[in-house]
Specification:
223 residues, 3 helices, elongated
Length: 223
C-alpha cells in the first residue's frame, strides 16, 4: 500500500509539469499577429529628422505681411525603419517672421532696399490635426548659434573700443590729407542713379529643408 502511494505521488510530481508544458505549447501566440495587424501602430520619429518641404503658393514681399501664414507640403515620404510615418503631400504651414517690401525711393545700388522674406519654424499637420514642430536648424545648430550669440555679447564692448581707437588714429590723418588735396566738385552734368529695388519672391514649388525639433511618437501609415 505504501509502495502504491509512493508510485502515485511520483507520477503526479513528474507528469503534472510535463502536462502543463504541453498545454502551453498547444496555445497560439497571438500577440505578434495583433501587433502586425493593428492599424494604429506607433513608432518614434527621431529629433532632427530631415523634412523637405515645397511651397504650394507663390509668396512675395510686395503683398505679404509679418505673421502671414504660408502653405507648404512634404516632398517625399518620411520613413523610420522602412515604415512610412509621414507620407508625401502632407500639409505644412509656417508664419513669415520678416517681411520687408522694396523701397522705390532708394538711391544708389543699395541691396538693403530690396524686398526681403523670411520664415524659420514650420508645423507638419498630420491626420486628425496633430502638429509636429519643425525648425530651420538641427539641435546642434541651434546650440552653436546660442554659443555664438553669447560670445558676441561678451566681445561687443572690446570691439567698440578697438573701433573707437581706430577712429582716433585715422581722423587726424584724414584731416591732414584733405588739407593737402582739396575735394573736387562733381561735374554739373553728373546724375544720381536711382535704383528702384525689387521685391523678394518665393515661387510656387520652391523647396526648403527643415528638421523635427523633438522626438515624437507617430502612427505608422498603412498602405
Amino acid at each position: 500500500m505504501k509502495q502504491f502511494a509512493f508510485t502515485l505521488m511520483l507520477f503526479v510530481v513528474v507528469l503534472s509539469p510535463l502536462a502543463a508544458v504541453c498545454q502551453r505549447a498547444g496555445r497560439t501566440d497571438t500577440s505578434g499577429i495583433a501587433a502586425g495587424t493593428n492599424d494604429t501602430d506607433t513608432i518614434l520619429l527621431p529629433r532632427d529628422t530631415r523634412v523637405e518641404l515645397r511651397l504650394t503658393e507663390t509668396v512675395s514681399s510686395a503683398d505679404r505681411h509679418k505673421e502671414d501664414v504660408i502653405h507648404l507640403e512634404v516632398v517625399s515620404d518620411i520613413e523610420v525603419g522602412g515604415m512610412v510615418v509621414v507620407p508625401a503631400g502632407t500639409e505644412a504651414v509656417a508664419k513669415l517672421t520678416t517681411v520687408r517690401p522694396r523701397d522705390p525711393k532708394a538711391k544708389g545700388y543699395d541691396v538693403a532696399r530690396d524686398g526681403y522674406l523670411e520664415f524659420s519654424d514650420a508645423d507638419l499637420i498630420l491626420s486628425g490635426g496633430r502638429r509636429i514642430r519643425l525648425s530651420d536648424e538641427t539641435a546642434r545648430g541651434r546650440r552653436n548659434a546660442r554659443i555664438l550669440n553669447a560670445t558676441a555679447v561678451v566681445l561687443a564692448p572690446l570691439s567698440l573700443a578697438v573701433v573707437a581707437a581706430g577712429y582716433a588714429i585715422a581722423l587726424p590723418i584724414a584731416a591732414a590729407t584733405a588739407l593737402d588735396h582739396p575735394a573736387q566738385r562733381a561735374p554739373a552734368h553728373a546724375q544720381t542713379v536711382v535704383y528702384q529695388g525689387k521685391d523678394m519672391v518665393f515661387e510656387y514649388g520652391k523647396e526648403f529643408t527643415r528638421y523635427t525639433r523633438d522626438r515624437v511618437q507617430v502612427d505608422v501609415v498603412r498602405p
